[in-house]
Amino acid sequence: VVGLLNGWLVARRNVSPFLATLAMMIILQGMRFAYTGGAPISTLPPGMSFLASGRLLGVPVNLFTLAVLATAFGIVLHRSRFGREVFMVGSNPKAAFLNGVAPDRVVILCYVICSVCAGIGGLFLLGYVGTVSNWVGQGYELDSIVAAVMGGVALSGGRGNIFAALLGVAVLVVINNLVLLLGFPIEMQLIIKGVIIIGAA
User: Are 93 and 102 in contact (CB under 8 A)?
Assistant: First the structure.
């Protein structure tokens, strides 16, 4: 529902993607505060911990899920008509329209897929942390942007690769860990991320 609304605002109402998603994030944060009363909740279903520590065929569930999703989306992006349409719309929506592609449909569907993936990620994070806190995951929206641009994904659209983005995630994790291991203040992580975004832009 969130992705559908974001996609509709961007595709049909010409709202800036940044403003649409920022406004939706603020709305969802307000709804979360209203629902929880600002207090953390620790009464989670027993199965949630399986997402964080469970194993399938000896492989951690979270790693298994990541591999399955990355492979599936990699195939869709680079081996299907829809994937080509995504790149076409990202590069030039008008040219895509002239080639018989419905840009609005592609944009809305991409936002829906993004929200579904965010929901899946939220469930795994919840299983790992073990509590619903109003500040869990704060700043992850910035990390996702930094990881994507480090992996060669164009902020303007039309260029990107799933596995290169995963490599960007790995590099970002290494950088964050190095900052801590070398004894630098945690603020250095934010400075490095900002420099990476400027460099990519």
Answer: no
Q: In angstroms, rounded to a whole number, what is the distance separating the alpha carbons of residues 196 and 143?
A: 11
The DSSP code for 41 is B
Q: How far apart are CA 171 and CA 149, in angstroms?
A: 11
Can you list the alpha helix ranges (DSSP code H) found in 102-161? 103-129, 140-150
Tens digit of each residue's pLDDT (9 = 90 or more) over 111-139:
999 999 999 999 999 888 888 887 788 88
pTM of the model: 0.87
Query: pLDDT band at 16, cuts 50/70/90?
Result: very high
Tell me the percentage of the chain whose pLDDT exceeds 90. 50
Does residue 30 come out as left (phi exceeding 0), alpha (psi in the -120 to 50 range) or beta? alpha
For the chain, the distance separating the N- and C-terminal CA atoms, rounded to the nearest angstrom, is: 31
pLDDT of residue 75: 96
| Cβ atoms of residues 10 and 107 within 8 Å | yes
CA–CA distance, 154 with 129 (Å, rounded to integer): 32
